[in-house]
Amino acid sequence: MIHKKIVYLTIALALSLVSTAQQTPAPKQQKSVLIINAKAHIGNGTVLDNSAIGFKNGKIDLVSNDKNIAVSNYETVIDAKGKEVYPGFIAPNSTLGLVEIDAVKSSDDESEIGTYNPHVRSLIAYTADSKVIETVRPNGILMAQITPRGGIISGTSSIVQLDAWHWSDAVIKENDGIHMEFPSSFKRSGSWFEPGTIEANKEYTNQIQEINTFFTNAKAYNTTPAKERNLIFEATKGLFNGEQTLFIHAGEEKQMIDAIQLAKNNGIEKIVIVGGYEAHKIGNYLKNNHIGVLLKRVHEMPENDDDDIDLPFKLAKLLTDQGVLVGLENSGSHERMGTRNLPFLAGTCVAYGLGKEQALQLITSNTAKILGIDTFCGTLEVGKDATLFISEGDALDMRTNKLTTAFIQGRSISLETHQTKLNDRYKTKFNQK
């Protein structure tokens, strides 16, 4: 009976959280907006110290450093003197909206049964009014790549903006890529508190052969007439005609090389490495093959005994110096709640060698290029979506990242969260301003 009560209370809590979810999505932009006098970080390495950023109908139509802008051309003028403007940050390889409470199975929809699931579309499981989503927007994360988990072929991801009623309203690029968890060439025993041994994965060769057989059959299905419809193979068509990217989740040097070679042997050209812990060892190989890397969360301990203690912190710098296109992701433990810390991961990369504007590119223009959405977002440029925000200070520094205003496709969105409500409530209780 006690166990049943705990289950009922947990479900009730989950329903309560969902029923009081994020703020009402903002309506379509009606009035034109001009932001003046702010320091604008364009997202491509350029900084305008005294900028004018204008947008109408959800699109940027003015980016200037000219002080003599005709403000009368815009219906709403925001004087952001002393503040900073940034393009909206992008969270790739994210499970935002797929899991609400880990302990409540009915709210967990991040993985599917089976090993090869390219036909599983994470987008239709995405909950646009997730309570967690509203917690990431106040730090500037305004877009995310919603990505499934599990199996060898986990499924298909899609990219969304984070202020919507429903997944159909949220999507900005549907079915952008298919995600593969490539097997490791080694097996590790033990746990985080009691390290074990590392030994060769004796099944590695057989596992690679199995994956190769899957892609060979999938390619044959999509290039020759089939007698019977196969939804699994059909879902991989975009990999072979260049419409989709294969995101290979791998970290070891040998693992990445084997995975890339397997993909290329099967005619897959658009490839991205996700994780990439040892990517710096094959930087030239990645650069020559035009393969970008979405680095795993840099706030981690080194994985190997002989690694530099600060290796995770300086990986972005090492890869950037080798000419590799690099972005940051935040998968792992507490990944959804930790998504809000994405800008501070970039800030850590500044402390370990990258320039501030280079670090900003890790979560804006670089990620947009890797995800194939750079034609309409990732930087503050004329013609692109007006997805941006104003901060009181440096958005990569947790001490000064304080958003005052944010826009998604020109819509002024709410930055209120459950936490801000509690903050206001208890300030009132203790008579604080």
Automatic annotation (TrEMBL):
UniProt domain Amidohydrolase-related: residue ranges: 350-404
Taxonomic superkingdom: Bacteria
Signal sequence, renumbered to the chain: 1-21
Record bears the keyword Transferase: no
Keyword Signal assigned: yes
A Pfam cross-reference name: Amidohydro_1
Transmembrane segments: none
Alphabetically ordered keywords of this record: Signal
Protein name in UniProt: Amidohydrolase family protein
High-level lineage: Bacteria, Pseudomonadati, Bacteroidota, Flavobacteriia, Flavobacteriales
